[in-house]
Amino acid sequence: MKRRSTPKRRRTIPYRRIAFAAPAILAGAFHASSPAHATPVSADDPLTITVTGPSREVIMSNKEATHFATDTHGRDQRSYAGLYTAMHESLNDYVITIDGAVLEPSAAQSVDVLPWSMTRNYANGVREEVALLDREPVLTLRIHAGAAKPKQWTLAPRVDHRWIWETPFAQFEDEIVEGAFCIRRTGWAPPPNVPGWLAVKASAPAAWTATGVRRSATHPRDAARNAMAKTNPYEPGVFTGAWPAGAEYVDIVFALGADARAAGALATRTLADRDAKLDARRTRIRETIATNALKIEDARLAKAYDWARASMDVLVMNVRGPGIYAGFHWFPNYWGRDTFICVPGALLVTGQWDEARAILRSFLQFQLLDRGSPRMGRLPNIVNPGELQYAGVDGTWWYVRAAYKYCKARRDAGDADLDFERELRPALAFMIKGAEKMAVDEHGLLKHGDGETWMDAGGEANPFSPRGNRAIEVQALYYNGLRAAQQLATWHDDLEGAKEFGALASRTAAGIDRLFWNDSMQSWVDHLNVDGSQDMQIRPNTILALTAVEREWPPLVDEKRARAIVDLAYGKTALPQGVASLDPADPAFHPKHLDLANYYYDEAYHNGDVWLWLSGPMISALARTGRMDEARAMLDPLVDDLLDHGAVGAIREIRDGVVTDQQEEFGGATFQAWSMAEMIRAMHEDLGPGLGWAK
Question: How far is CA 72 from the centre of its chain?
Answer without folding.
Answer: 19
